[in-house]
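pls design
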């Protein structure tokens, strides 16, 4: 399967800002069962974009816009090839817990075992662990499959009930949230068991016949746990799925704080509004590599407006740093 992805992000400032510095993680990974064939990034106002790979081989782009501007538009386009995943069994051998402990002892997985900024053990999380009986039993695969489904049943999917920086206790108390919250809760529960677990940022291809709770026009998040003989296996508690051929991986980290699609600061006294649109289309045959993706009319208008010169400010704004990030749905 081949996936064509367009990811548009637009920041609109109530008053012009004098500089923006931005870091992006929108370039799909080439590993496991997927390969990123092409990637392009457009920034308006125009800017020179630099890139590097972090210690987990995530592709990171960054740029600086020093001129005055009242909006910032980023359009990322990708073509990703997916190979079928190997069969994921329903259970493992009787000595799987022992094998897992041996793998952990011999490897360097401490980052994915310790609490992190958003995947913390709290009293509310401990209460949930007792309610769901999240203890070492059966075998790791059976337990993770059960936990994946029980979190799906326990929480309601409700966009805008939490913020990008909400602690897991907010979702635990209200029993609702988005994929970002469910991933953090599952990571915190799984790490308590001594299973390395990491956060995955990316996209989910939605088909009409699927009963996905997550929305199709936003980025997605799920988790991966390390299991004997299988390596890293993906679990999607938002949709009660084993991550498979429809999940497109962009970045890996301890939690969302490591891999937000956008992270940046600007200089100016202003408020900002964030608009995000994601389009994922699939085909069984690869499109021509020199074929441009069709541009939806509304996105084209956004880019054209962003290229228009900003109006002169009424007064010079004071210097102020603010952070702008987008929540994963």
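designed seq:
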């Amino acid at each position: 399967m081949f996936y064509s992805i367009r990811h548009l992000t637009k920041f609109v400032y109530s008053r012009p800002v004098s500089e923006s510095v931005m870091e992006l993680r929108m370039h799909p990974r080439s590993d496991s069962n997927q390969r990123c064939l092409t990637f392009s990034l457009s920034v308006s106002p125009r800017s020179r974009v630099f890139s590097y790979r972090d210690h987990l081989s995530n592709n990171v782009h960054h740029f600086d816009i020093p001129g005055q501007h009242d909006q910032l538009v980023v359009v990322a386009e990708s073509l990703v090839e997916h190979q079928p995943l190997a069969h994921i069994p329903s259970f493992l051998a009787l000595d799987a817990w022992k094998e897992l402990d041996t793998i952990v002892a011999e490897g360097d997985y401490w980052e994915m075992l310790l609490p992190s900024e958003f995947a913390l053990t709290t009293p509310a999380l401990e209460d949930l662990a007792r309610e769901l009986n999240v203890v070492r039993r059966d075998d790791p695969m059976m337990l993770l499959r059960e936990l994946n489904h029980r979190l799906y049943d326990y929480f309601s999917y409700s966009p805008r009930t939490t913020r990008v920086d909400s602690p897991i206790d907010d979702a635990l108390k209200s029993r609702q949230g988005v994929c970002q919250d469910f991933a953090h809760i599952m990571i915190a529960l799984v790490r308590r068991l001594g299973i390395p677990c990491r956060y995955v940022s990316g996209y989910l291809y939605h088909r009409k016949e699927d009963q996905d709770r997550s929305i199709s026009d936003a980025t997605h998040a799920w988790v991966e746990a390390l299991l004997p003989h299988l390596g890293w296996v993906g679990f999607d508690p938002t949709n009660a799925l084993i991550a498979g051929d429809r999940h497109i991986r962009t970045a890996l980290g301890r939690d969302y704080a490591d891999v937000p699609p956008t992270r940046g600061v600007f200089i100016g006294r202003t408020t900002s509004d964030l608009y995000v649109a994601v389009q994922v289309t699939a085909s069984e045959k690869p499109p021509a590599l020199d074929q441009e993706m069709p541009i939806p009319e509304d996105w084209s208008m956004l880019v054209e407006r962003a290229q228009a010169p900003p109006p002169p400010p009424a007064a010079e704004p004071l210097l102020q740093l603010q952070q702008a990030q987008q929540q994963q749905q």
